[in-house]
Amino acid sequence: MNKQIQEKIGEIFNRMREMVINLPTSNEIEKLVSEINEVIKELSKIALPSGYWVERKMVKNYPQKKVYYYYYLRYYGDDGRIHNQYLGKEIPEWVQRGLEARETIRKLEQVIDELRGIELFLLKAFSHFRTCREILEDVLGKEE
Model-level pTM? Predict the structure, then answer.
């Protein structure tokens, strides 16, 4: 049983070491991050700025008991007040593209954060596992 555990730990350790060895280098990660930043720069040209959002307003027509919806683009002005821009019954394509571009930028920024954290995470995990392996080898070695 102890021999099987040691072999399994050895296999896991070797696989983790391969993962750490085959990690992309910092230069490769930074190159990828710079490419993503270029995409973000292009998307920011069509994205709605932060502080802009779309709201749907409901209007009731009481004699006919119908409900209509209108869209407004809302944003904070230089004076700190909320301003409205009427969009109509449907959201225009330029606003929709701007919202989608802004959401894509957010997701790409999360990808950048995760890319920068992958290398550190795997190195820490490998270090912790190495410590556990050493402790288990000591414990299992004492039993024999």
Answer: 0.64
